[in-house]
Write a structure and sequence with these properties.
Blueprint lengths: L5 H14 L13 E2 L6 E3 L18 E3 L7 E2 L12 E3 L7 E2 L12 E3 L7 E2 L12 E3 L7 E2 L12 E3 L12 H4 L6 E3 L7 E3 L13 E3 L7 E3 L10 E5 L8 E3 L11 E5 L5 H10 L5 E5 L2 H5 L2 H5 L7 E3 L20 E3 L21 E3 L20 E3 L21 E3 L21 E3 L21 E3 L7 E2 L12 E4 L6 E2 L12 E7 L14 E7 L23 E7 L22 E5 L19 E5 L19 E3 L21 E3 L21 E3 L5 E2 L5 H9 L4 E2 L7 E3 L20 H49 L5 E6 L5 H15 L4 E2 L1 H4 L6 H10 L1 E8 L1 H5 L1 H17 L4 E5 L12 H9 L3 E2 H4 L3 H13 L18
Parallel strand pairs: 2-3, 3-5, 4-6, 5-7, 7-9, 8-10, 9-11, 11-12, 12-14, 13-15, 14-16, 15-17, 16-18, 18-19, 19-20, 20-21, 21-22, 22-23, 23-24, 24-25, 25-26, 26-28, 27-29, 28-30, 30-31, 31-32, 32-33, 33-34, 34-35, 35-36, 36-37, 37-39, 38-40, 41-42, 41-43, 43-44, 44-45
Antiparallel strand pairs: 1-2
Length: about 950
């Protein structure tokens, strides 16, 4: 800052003061952050907020304010968010919402206010939300809904009111009457019953889904045609110990019900039978935690429902469960997950010739059930989360129509070549999280339509040549494993349509990606074991085929032992369409400046866990289209390198967990498109060296500094733990040198001004001061009514004293009897002269000025006539008598401005003109002394001619 000019400093200071009143323009949000990859999504969750932030940008489409301490929402809380679509306010302490608080959210479609403390829904609470389709108010204390509460929600389709304190069905009337309502969830309510007789007869709702789960209902009764479109009822966990009563006397009242959920034994066997027999259109039935009723044979009734297609029996621990399904031959979907079965006895489901979707996950099966071989219609089979260790060639011999097979999280050790050879329609195969150590050539034949294959989290040791040669349709492959010791050069040969590959490769890889010419996304997990002793060999030709690659991610697991990985420059040579490159824990030091010389389309660059302290700006010259730059965890100490690069398109810059202490704000002038800046967990210095950066963070309205208001100080020690943006920067603009300059300039100006005044105006100032004192003196004297001490004060030059004594005194004092004041006779000894003059002029009725050339040249005589003229102007009385002892031409009076001014306005007495008629002269003086009226411009008592 030392080289900044005075004018620049003043401009910066004025700008700073202006910014204090316009922080609303700032884009550095105090308590929120905008997700870069999902622009318009604002995250303000878990920030201990007690009110809605006032700096939410107006353009956001989604705001998450969950997990805070907000208690109230006021009318102005969301005043400028006219484009907001989704608002999350769950897990707060909201107990009051002012009417009209959402009036400006005209574009809002989803509002979530679960887990708060709301008690009432007032008539104008949701005013303005005409486009809202989803409203979730679960787990509040709502016990009252105004009849007009939902009148503004004309587009509302889904309402969730689980776990509230509503007492009766009639409370739901404002919701049921909504024109587009489809789904209503009122689980865990306080209703003792749900009966449509409690609602007006003329009400008809468009509701399709009704969720009453976990409600302590004694009775569920539909006696009016209020739900003509109802398709799904959820009663899981509903009922009381004595059992839920089902009262639907007319089957036609629930003619469209296709889905029904029951759970927990809170309904009697006979009552459930009555329910199932009354539904003629049931397609999907879920019975969860119903062991007792299943044991008593309820499935016999279930299997008789002719329309039933999907049956979910999850979380039922019944040993002979499958035996009761023999008659359910018409099912197309069966879910037996979480049923704790160890085996599926042969012949129990083999007759389900229409079964297309079978879920057996989260059980204890040790092998694929034999009945699977008979299910030729099966399309989707889920055997995940079991204990299957072996797959035989007959397990899927007849399931030739299978399109999806999930075997995730089992204990499969190996695969025989023939296991999947008949699955010609299979599209998705998930074998992740098993114990596979070899593929056994299983993918060298068959599976012509397989598109998705996940082999991650296995114990694969070697990937052999052409291990996947038969998978010509494969587009996604994941073979990540920490056990892979070798991937041979021709492993991926034949994967001509592969688009996405994630693979683990040992550090001394010799892998070639030959045959993967259409690959667009490649993720390589390099790993190092204790045997690694030498640098990585340069097999850059391994990547030569990847000419279509757009995204390349390389992550190294393990410690380098100080040895460079030596990723060759030529590795990226063929990737002319590369748009994203990520390298984590790969490079030991800064990249070679020519690393990206063949990748001009690169838009996103991430280099992490690397020592980039000596990063060269030339690295970025070949990639001017870069939009995202992430250099986190890279030991960067300064951002100065950015001043030497040309990145006009850079929008996102992430530099988390580095060693940056000071930032020069001018750096960001080189990044005109920057909108997202992340500098969290850097050891910032809180002093004037960061003043410019702090001001920039506060004031700029383009770049969002993610969590900028949470950045803390590391230096100096006294500031540790305090917030960076709380540092007072105002004093920084006036540094020591600047203050010294201002101080010395002021001292110089004061010295010059004082010298000028003393030399040219000292007497004027002194005279003005004493005039002021005289004014005060006269004012006090007039207030006291004190008489004058003298008739006249004689102002004369010492050289004219002989004429005064010889001519004036004998006549005026001796003959006429006037009491005169003369300085040589009547001034008080020891008293300042100017004070004696003041006292003499204001203590006398008149002042007689005896004027000669010497008088005009006398400094003190000049002061006396000036003070007398001031009195004349002040009192506006004839207190001044002018006597000229010499004839003085007008041109000789020019230097004496005040005297010339007086002579232009007043007559005077001239001693030379009196000649031999001195008696007349003194008689005129007497008449002047006797006069006491107001002063005029020409006083006729004075016989001398006015000066011209």
């Amino acid at each position: 800052m030392g080289g900044v000019s005075l004018m620049q400093r003043l401009l910066v200071l004025s700008a700073f003061l202006l910014l204090q009143t316009s922080l609303s323009l700032a884009y550095s949000l105090k308590n929120c952050s905008i997700e870069y990859m999902a622009d318009g999504v604002l995250d303000c969750s878990n920030r201990k907020l007690v009110s809605i932030p006032d700096d939410i940008p107006s353009h956001v489409s989604s705001v998450n304010l969950s997990d805070n301490l907000v208690e109230q929402i006021n009318r102005g809380s969301f005043g400028n968010l006219s484009k907001l679509n989704i608002l999350f306010l769950i897990f707060n302490h909201i107990n009051y919402v002012e009417d009209g608080s959402f009036i400006h959210l005209c574009a809002l479609t989803q509002l979530y206010m679960d887990n708060n403390k709301m008690t009432d829904l007032t008539g104008k609470l949701f005013m303005g939300l005409s486009n809202l389709t989803m409203l979730s108010l679960n787990e509040n204390n709502i016990q009252f809904i105004h009849t007009s509460a939902f009148q503004f929600l004309s587009s509302l389709q889904t309402v969730r009111l689980d776990s509230n304190n509503l007492q009766q069905v009639s409370d739901l009337l404002p919701i049921l009457q909504l024109p587009h309502i489809q789904k209503l969830s009122i689980g865990s309510t306080q209703f003792s019953s749900f009966e449509t007789k409690d609602l007006p007869l003329n009400v008809s709702s468009s509701l399709t889904v009704l969720d009453l789960s976990d409600s302590k209902l004694e009775k569920f009764s539909i006696t009016t045609d209020i739900f003509p479109y109802l398709e799904m009822i959820n009663l899981i966990g509903s009922g009381i110990d004595s059992g839920l009563k089902w009262a639907v006397p007319d089957k036609a009242l629930l003619r469209n019900i296709t889905q029904l959920y029951f759970g927990h034994p809170l309904i009697a066997f006979e009552e459930l039978q009555k329910v199932l027999e009354s539904l003629d259109s049931l397609v999907h039935l879920r019975l969860t935690y119903m062991e007792e009723l299943i044991h008593n044979g309820i499935l016999a009734t279930v299997c008789k429902i002719p329309t039933l297609k999907k049956l979910v029996l999850d979380f039922n621990h019944v040993p002979n469960l499958s035996s009761q399904l023999v008659d359910c031959r018409h099912l197309s979907e069966l879910d037996l997950s979480h049923t704790y079965m160890r085996e599926l006895p042969e012949g129990k489901i083999r007759f389900m010739k229409q079964l297309r979707f079978l879920t057996l996950e989260w059980n204890r099966l040790t092998k694929v059930p034999d009945d699977i071989q008979s299910l030729s219609s099966l399309k989707i089979l889920n055997l995940g989360k079991n204990f299957i260790s072996d797959l035989s060639c007959n397990d899927f011999i007849n399931t030739t129509g299978l399109t999806e097979l999930y075997l995730v999280s089992n204990r499969i050790v190996k695969l025989d070549r023939c296991v999947f050879e008949n699955l010609n329609e299979l599209n998705i195969l998930d074998l992740s999280d098993n114990l596979l150590w070899t593929l056994g050539g299983v993918f060298k034949k068959g599976l012509p339509r397989l598109e998705f294959l996940d082999l991650s989290k296995n114990n694969l040791i070697i990937l052999e040549n052409e291990d996947f040669q038969a998978l010509g349709s494969l587009t996604f492959l994941n073979v990540v494993s920490t056990h892979i010791g070798r991937v041979k050069r021709r492993t991926f040969l034949g994967l001509n349509n592969l688009r996405n590959l994630t693979v683990s490769i040992p550090l001394d890889y010799e892998t070639h990606f030959r045959g993967t010419g259409q690959l667009e996304h490649l993720t390589i997990n390099l790993f190092i074991d204790g045997s690694f002793k030498s640098p990585l060999p340069s097999h850059h030709d391994a990547f030569y085929q990847l000419k279509c690659l757009k995204v390349l991610t390389i992550k190294c697991k393990g410690y380098h032992f100080g040895l460079p990985l030596d990723i060759p420059l030529e590795m990226l040579q063929s990737m002319k369409h590369l748009e994203e490159f990520t390298a984590e824990n790969v490079y030991i030091s800064a990249l070679d400046p020519e690393t990206f010389q063949f990748n001009p389309q690169l838009k996103s660059l991430t280099i992490g866990q690397t020592d980039l302290s000596d990063l060269l700006p030339e690295l970025f010259e070949p990639i001017p289209n870069l939009q995202v730059l992430d250099l986190s965890e890279s030991q960067i100490k300064s951002l100065d390198f950015l001043t030497q690069v040309n990145l006009p398109a850079l929008r996102c810059l992430k530099l988390r967990d580095n060693e940056i202490t000071v930032i020069n704000e001018t750096i960001f002038q080189c990044l005109p498109a920057l909108t997202h800046l992340d500098l969290e967990n850097n050891p910032f210095t809180c002093d004037c060296s960061n003043a410019g950066f702090i001001q920039w963070v506060r004031s700029n309205n383009q770049t969002q500094v993610v969590n900028g208001h949470q950045y803390t100080c590391s230096f100096p020690v006294a500031e540790q733990g305090s917030k960076l943006l709380d540092f007072d920067i105002q004093s920084c603009w006036m540094d020591v040198s600047f203050l010294c300059f201002i101080s010395s300039s002021c001292i110089t100006l004061v010295t010059l001004l004082t010298s000028f005044i003393y030399y040219f105006l000292r007497w004027q100032i002194a005279y003005t001061f004493h005039l002021f004192l005289a004014f005060l003196y006269e004012s006090r004297r007039r207030k006291k009514g004190a008489p004058h001490q003298y008739d006249a004060f004689i102002s004369y030059n010492i050289h004219d004293e002989a004429w005064i004594c010889r001519e004036m005194l004998p006549v005026l004092e001796g003959e006429q009897g006037w009491k005169l004041c003369l300085h040589h006779r009547d001034f008080q000894p020891g008293k300042p002269i100017i004070e004696n003059i003041t006292d003499a002029i204001y203590g006398s009725r008149k002042t007689i000025c005896v004027i000669t050339r010497r008088y005009l040249q006398s400094e003190w005589c000049s002061r006396e006539i000036q003070m007398a003229s001031f009195r004349l102007l002040d009192e506006q009385k004839d207190v001044l008598i002018l006597i000229f002892l010499e004839d003085i031409p007008a041109h000789q009076l020019s230097p004496y401005y005040r005297m010339r001014k007086l002579l232009k306005k007043r007559s005077y007495l001239s001693w030379p003109q009196a000649g031999q008629h001195t008696g007349v002269f003194w008689q005129n003086v007497r008449r002047a002394l006797e006069a006491g009226g107001a002063a005029t411009e020409t006083t006729h008592l004075l016989t001398g001619p006015a000066a011209r």
